[in-house]
Amino acid sequence: MIKKSIVLLLVLWLSGCASLGKGVAEAFLEKQEAKDERVCEIWGTAFGGLKANLSTNNGISKVLMIHGVGDHSSGYATEFAEKLAKELELSVTSKQHKEINLTDREDKTKKLGKLRVRRFLNKAKNKELLFYELTWSEITAKYKEILAYDNSGEYSFRRTKINDMMKKFSNDTGPDPIIYLGESRGDILSSFIQSFCWMASGGWKDLPEGTPKACWAENISPLNHIINDHYAFVSHSLGSRITIDGLQKIAEILGNAVAQKKASKKQQDLAIALRNKHIPLYMMSNQLPMLQLGRNLPEVYGKKQAYCEMEGEHYSKRILSKTSIIAFSDPNDLLSYAIPHAFVEKYLDSRLCIDVTNININVATVFDIFGLGKIANPMDAHIGYDTDDRVVALIAKGIGNSNTAEIVKQRCRWIETID
After folding, report:
1. Side-chain half-sphere of 403: how many Cα atoms within 13 Å?
2. pLDDT in tens, 291-340
3. Do 359 and 338 contact (CB within 8 A), yes or no?
């Protein structure tokens, strides 16, 4: 309601017509919402979504969700997970979730966030999806206490209601990218790596609960899980940077250990298993270009052909066989960017073998304000991805295949790209 009120106020102000009734304006906005002519344009090759791997007989499908800026509580991805399960026709779920208190292998006093896991199955119970939800924001919450005074009544009452809402939103979300560039970056990346480790370590019954516990390569036993299971990541805003950095960190750790012949037998087996994995990464409100500013280049870049082509001289040193980035960006999301090919070549690790599909999609409603121009709520455009039916359908069933959802066929335009 607050978000619609902001648009409503802008409509009234821009129209310059003081006599226009609130009811007339709301009716006008609701009429435009009913049309729903929001854009959905896809540039890239066909992809199968989660459905493609869910249909195979071997292995479990596993999805890890990584949130973006702002304080989050465990369970923040529940609506998205349930919409995804419904789209995939997984009507059976576990009575309770499992929750792991993440910690560091060498320092058990560290609190690295929480990993909540839910289990979904089809009615025949022969198709399984494990949904892992990472909450890392407790790492940055302690630093944001510095700004707590600004949210108190002592200061907030001096602002208008709308401005106070926006200031509190800014205080909650603005500091996270700054904190991530500081000393907490290592802990946040450890949180992601720990989550990926638990994701690779087995099935539903193998996961611990409650007490802080660290995961490392030795937990990933037997290796048939990482060989046969299917992995995917879903990230939002800063979470996409964390995911890419986390994967690049894994690439550095395993790559250097193998190159220096310091890798344990389990690490060597793990590196070999990962080399044959194709992992899709669904990015909502992608911010990689902006968050690259002022950062060092990755350890290996500009050598994709050498690492990812079978005839390449470093093919045996790749980390993944392919990382498919599907980047969702609302053009009215002020914090979202497309990913051009040149960016991938220069700023992302070549050993991840990254391929990009860009999706230009209006998740926020665009209003025509009485012929004076068009407007969309930038807040809706930033946070509305995981509840948008087209986004959920694309992640679940992809594009350009026999499973593609009707809503995608009817509402999205696909521009297939080739080399």
Report:
1. 19
2. 898 889 998 999 999 999 999 999 998 989 999 999 999 999 988 899 99
3. no
Residue 174 burial (CB count, 10 A):
15
Highest mean pLDDT among 44-58, 151-165, 351-365: 351-365
Among 196, 178, 197, 180, CA closest to 188: 180
CA angle 252, 59, 268 (to 5 degrees): 30
Q: Give the closest residue to 416 by CA, choosing from 376, 358, 361, 372.
A: 358
Range of the domain at 253: 39-95+115-140+222-416
Q: Assess whether 354 and 247 both reside in one domain.
A: yes
Instruction: Describe the chain by its helix, strand, coil percentages, rounded to 5.
Output: 45, 20, 35
- Residue 173 in this model has a pLDDT that exceeds 90: no
Tally of domains within the chain: 2
CA distance 61 to 81: 13
Grade residue 12 by pLDDT with cuts at 50, 70 and 90.
very low
Per-residue pLDDT, 167: 80
Distances (CA, A) of 51 to 61, 96, 129, 399, 400: 9, 24, 10, 11, 13
Half-sphere exposure of 73 (CA within 13 A, CB side): 0
Q: What is the DSSP-derived secondary structure letter of residue 148?
A: G
Q: Are 331 and 317 in contact, with CB atoms under 8 Å apart?
A: no
Shared-domain flag, residues 30 and 43 = no
**Shared-domain flag, residues 282 and 373:** yes
Tell me the pLDDT tens digit for each residue of 143-156.
Answer: 888 877 777 777 77
Q: Where are the beta strands (DSSP E) in 148-209?
A: none
| 3-state secondary structure at position 264 | coil
- Is 346 a domain residue? yes
Q: Is omega for the bond preceding 222 within 30 degrees of 0, making it cis? A: yes
* 314 and 394 housed in the same domain: yes
The verdict on 28 and 57 lying in the same domain is: no
Closest CA to 237 of 184, 289, 279: 289
- Asked if the structure places residue 148 within a domain, the reply is no
Q: Do residues 48 and 118 lie in contact, with contact meaning Cβ atoms separated by under 8 Å?
A: no
Phi and psi at residue 4, to the nearest 5°: -65, -35
pTM of the entire structure? 0.88
Q: Which of 250, 223, 346 is nearest to 292 (CA)?
A: 346
Q: Are residue 81 and residue 19 in the same domain, yes or no?
A: no
Q: Which residues sit opposite 329 in a β-bridge?
A: 360
